[in-house]
Backbone:
């Protein structure tokens, strides 16, 4: 069964690009551009991993991540934070991300990172 | 008249008159007698001393009025005194400027005594004359000297006042608060800028202790330490930052420079404090940093999409595609990477400048890091021969991504500035407690003058800037990164003989590595 991957970024183009690429690599992709809806979506759909941006309107990626880590049902959810912010890596680490990738990234590197993380968690 | 014969000089006999004349002639004072009963009061007698004094002979003066002695100077103040005394029939002494027969000037101290007949009418005047030119000259010289000294004093006073005003105007123009304190920290003076910036009145400031000013708003612990502990050791305080919340003007960020007068004299041990208000400057720096952070984020976001699609398209190309299309896409991907690097460099430079580059140090095997970097370059520059020499025995504690950026900068420069030469050598060695990395190329080389500036921000060697694109920030960033790691980056080069860029990094201590 294909692994369910939730992609969350407020930039529609990035979401579409990632969906296109990752779908081609055998993942089931769910996308969301409204950061406000991500937390509820995760509780409802129970994805296998989350690929999420950091700076988003309304609620930032690290804030969502903290909520996830506090909730027992989602505390172990594999999460990759992607960001174009210079200090993104330390923010992501502090919030409890499993992996961090800085934008712009190498697509192959991202795919390898997702695959490896899912392998580890299963 | 029998008395006159018995007593010499009393009587009208010829012997007595002869004796009296002889006495007059042996006087060193000139003596003349004028006859006031005759028209124009003519001279009727002069003695030998007068002849000597005036240069005139007796025959030349008898019958003339005395005024001829004054030459052309007929308006002397002494004449008025004479005229008045003569009119009243009183004796008078004056000092008058007279001229000798040869035209030379002499100062004549003239005593005029009127002779009256029993009816009280003035019949004669006796004039006794002394040449007081030497005394008069001495007096005049003295007066002149005194005037000169007076004038000099006035001039010096004026100069001092001018200087004082000049210095004051400089002090008042400076856009920094300036305070002068006595050794007990009481304010001797302050400039307008100080009063304006800190909203205090002059009358509440001068003479008061610095710590009491404005309800103790300067009673700042950091400042006390500076003034009372650092300054007395004769060390100036340079660019010390004080962040303080003032009751009325709010939070101020200040840069303090303080200096104690060490010169022996009136001003010894006075304390000079220059206070620069950098609140606004710092706020502007923060705004600039925020702007750079946001704009670099906004620039990278579209790059993410471009790069992602670019890579996907390259992967999805059918195998029989025209190689030209493949090359074009590859090149476009390369330019996206280049743009990404530029954005990163600009942001990094701003961080370095404001001292905000933080290093995430970890234990790194420098040999492995160099091999990785070289491997990357071999793939992207198959035409170049990169070789590695040497090794180090201990790891270094470095921010791997930063040092790898330094290596990328140096190697890509070596490739860029050696267009005709394919050979690049990387050397790794241990020197004392440092690891040393050298990147050697065999290209254009750098002149001695340019070597001084290549590590400066935005500097580009003028002879290469037309042919080799770049912003002139790579070496600046590299040098700053190495410096922040506790090492040094330098260059050895000669024009047309290639260049060797070397840097050092402190090796991890042995016991540290073992434990």
Residues:
């Amino acid at each position: 069964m294909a692994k369910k991957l939730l992609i969350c970024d407020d930039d529609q183009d990035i979401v579409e690009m990632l969906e296109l690429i990752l779908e081609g690599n055998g993942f089931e992709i769910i996308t969301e551009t409204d950061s406000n809806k991500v937390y509820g979506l995760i509780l409802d759909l129970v994805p296998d991993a989350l690929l999420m941006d950091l700076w988003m309107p309304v609620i930032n990626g690290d804030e969502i991540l903290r909520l996830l880590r506090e909730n027992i049902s989602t505390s172990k959810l594999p999460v990759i934070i992607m960001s174009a912010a210079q200090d993104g890596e330390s923010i992501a680490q502090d919030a409890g991300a499993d992996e961090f990738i800085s934008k712009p990234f190498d697509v192959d590197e991202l795919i390898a990172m997702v695959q490896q993380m899912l392998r580890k968690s299963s | 008249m029998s008395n006159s014969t018995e007593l010499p000089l009393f009587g009208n006999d010829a012997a007595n008159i002869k004796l009296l004349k002889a006495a007059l002639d042996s006087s060193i004072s000139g003596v003349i007698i004028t006859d006031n009963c005759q028209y124009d009061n003519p001279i009727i007698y002069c003695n030998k001393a007068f002849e000597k004094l005036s240069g005139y002979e007796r025959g030349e003066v008898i019958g003339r009025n005395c005024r001829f002695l004054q030459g052309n100077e007929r308006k002397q103040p002494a004449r008025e005194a004479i005229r008045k005394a003569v009119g009243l029939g009183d004796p008078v002494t004056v000092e008058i400027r007279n001229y000798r027969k040869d035209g030379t000037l002499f100062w004549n101290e003239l005593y005029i005594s009127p002779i009256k007949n029993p009816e009280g009418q003035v019949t004669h005047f006796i004039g006794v004359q002394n040449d007081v030119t030497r005394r008069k000259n001495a007096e005049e010289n003295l007066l002149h000297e005194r005037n000169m000294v007076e004038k000099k004093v006035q001039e010096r006073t004026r100069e001092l006042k001018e200087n004082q005003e000049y210095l004051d105007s400089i002090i008042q123009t400076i856009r920094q608060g300036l305070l002068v304190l006595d050794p007990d920290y009481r304010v001797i003076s302050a400039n307008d800028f100080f009063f304006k910036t800190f909203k205090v009145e002059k009358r509440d400031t001068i003479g008061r202790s610095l710590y009491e000013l404005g309800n103790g708003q300067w009673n700042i612990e950091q400042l006390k330490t500076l003034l009372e502990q650092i300054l007395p050791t004769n060390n100036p305080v340079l660019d010390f930052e004080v962040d303080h919340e003032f009751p009325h003007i709010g939070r101020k960020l200040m840069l303090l420079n303080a200096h104690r007068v060490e010169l022996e004299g009136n001003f010894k041990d006075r304390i000079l404090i220059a206070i620069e208000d950098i609140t606004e400057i710092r706020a502007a720096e923060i705004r600039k940093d925020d702007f750079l952070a946001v704009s670099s984020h906004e620039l990278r976001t579209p790059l993410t999409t471009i790069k992602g699609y670019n890579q996907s398209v390259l992967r999805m190309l059918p195998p029989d595609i025209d190689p030209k299309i493949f090359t074009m896409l590859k090149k476009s991907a390369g330019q996206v990477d280049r743009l990404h690097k530029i954005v990163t460099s600009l942001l990094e430079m701003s961080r370095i400048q404001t001292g905000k580059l933080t290093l995430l140090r970890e234990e790194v095997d420098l040999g492995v890091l160099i091999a990785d970097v070289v491997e990357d370059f071999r793939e992207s520059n198959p035409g170049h021969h990169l070789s590695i020499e040497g090794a180090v025995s201990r790891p270094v504690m470095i921010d791997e991504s930063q040092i790898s950026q330094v290596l990328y900068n140096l190697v890509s420069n070596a490739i860029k500035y050696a267009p005709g030469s394919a050979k690049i050598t990387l050397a790794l060695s241990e020197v004392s407690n440092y690891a040393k990395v050298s990147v050697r190329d065999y290209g254009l080389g750098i002149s001695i003058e340019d070597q001084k500036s290549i590590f400066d921000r935005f500097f580009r060697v003028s002879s290469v800037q037309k042919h080799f694109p770049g912003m002139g920030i790579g070496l600046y960033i590299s040098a700053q990164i190495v410096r922040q790691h506790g090492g040094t980056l330098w260059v050895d080069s000669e024009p047309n003989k290639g260049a060797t860029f070397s840097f050092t990094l402190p090796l991890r201590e042995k016991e540290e590595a073992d434990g």
